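Morning. Coffee machine broken again, so started the prediction first thing and wrote up yesterday's gels while waiting. Chain of 501 residues, entered below exactly as on the submission form.
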Amino acid sequence: MAVRVRFAPSPTGFLHLGGLRTALFNHLFARKHKGSFILRVEDTDQDRLVPQAMESILDTLNWAKIMPDEGPFTTEDYPNYVQSSRLNIYKTKAQELVDNDAAYPCFCSLSRMELMRKEAIKNRQIFRYDKRCRNIDKREAKERMESGESHAIRFKLVPGMITVHDAVVGESSVDTSLSEGDFVILKSDSFPTYHLANVVDDHLMNISHVLRGTEWFKSTPKHLMMYQAFGWTPPAFAHLPLLLNEDGTKLSKRNDDFRVDKLRAKNYFPETVANFLLLTGGGWRPETIQIASMDELAEIFAIESLAKQSTRLSLFKLNVLNRFYMHYQIKNNRQAFVQTLRQYLIDRFGEEKLKDQTDEYLLFLFCEVPERFNSFGDFADEIGFVWDEPELSWNCKRFASLKNLDDLCEGCCDLVSKEWDASGSRLLRVGFIKNFCESKDVDFRNFFSLVRLCLSNKTHGIPIGQMLFALGKEEFIRRVQRGFQYTRDKLEEYEKNKTSS
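Came back before lunch.
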């Protein structure tokens, strides 16, 4: 049987790494077995849809280099892969189950169901439908349906053990009827629930293997019962364990650390993310750091070696991999790397501010303190002061001990100008400024703090020497003069207010 797998996201928000991992693992499995990878959009929960979420998911898959072989990519294909365009199919299949006595119409109102739910909670019981409509005479039920009376369709749970064979979790048996009641498969608004749409689509799309999150494992016995009721052969199942935040909490679309769009915004490389996900989920544990290609990952990928327990994501490990890959790119694909870096900076700061920056200049800035940067985003956060002059806003009282600010500023700028000219415009050590401070009996740490604020309005960052080279002599001096003037004016303002009060 040909391998056919699918990624079936709900367009209810941006992808986090958990969703991307499911897509990646399906993609790798299909490539390894020379099969097909299908994208299906499960948008039947209309109340939770997020505008443009589907476009974002498609864009993310394209960025991650795991584009499906089939999906809603054209107007002609759209109805075949988007569930909200397949409602007639689900309605027909639901009626087929009713005709075969495997399902029945339920005329209970939402208010009645809510009362039953509250009563179960009050009595500390598991809420289960009481089968009130299960025994309605079929002729009566048909007449009520044909008259237009609002109703849902429920599947008849059959008592007995159902065995699930799962490639990751293993084999388990459960009698679902002991913990659940007959469940809805078609809602009163004619939209299917996940259970019906999932089973019908997987069958009609000839899905051979279902690789999905472990949160759906509990639903698998119900799905197997539906396959049996239809007389269909179910696919093979593999439920992937949960990915957790570093603190052990459940990964969510609202967590920015592992939202794929946030990682993209900081220019984490897709190759890094793919390797990180396979490392985190099991299947590959290299003795040394490396970045495997997508073909290599497909060859390595094996369902049976995936972790069976929930796994905590580590931002530290992701950063280590991304740093490694950036340095690999600098060494082996230097021109492509600097072009990617330049485009990222243009997108962030504007083309005008980057037009005079040479490749050598950008690479020097990036490589001078490489261990500081986990991504292009980190680099831009640190070096952004070069292209975006910050507003002056700091507590100047801490610099009240620096006497004669005008003389200190002038002396420092004169020294920088002389040392710069003497060093051929590549000055990285600023020990001469420390010596200058000692000659003036000034606390050089306090003085350096003020200089850093003048340059970037930050208290921490790359060494002053790199900041000097990044800005150039003239811009360095201009910003220092501007910052010292700001500090002096603020200190004078404090003194006046102090005297008047």
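The mean pLDDT is 90. Going to sketch it on the whiteboard this afternoon.
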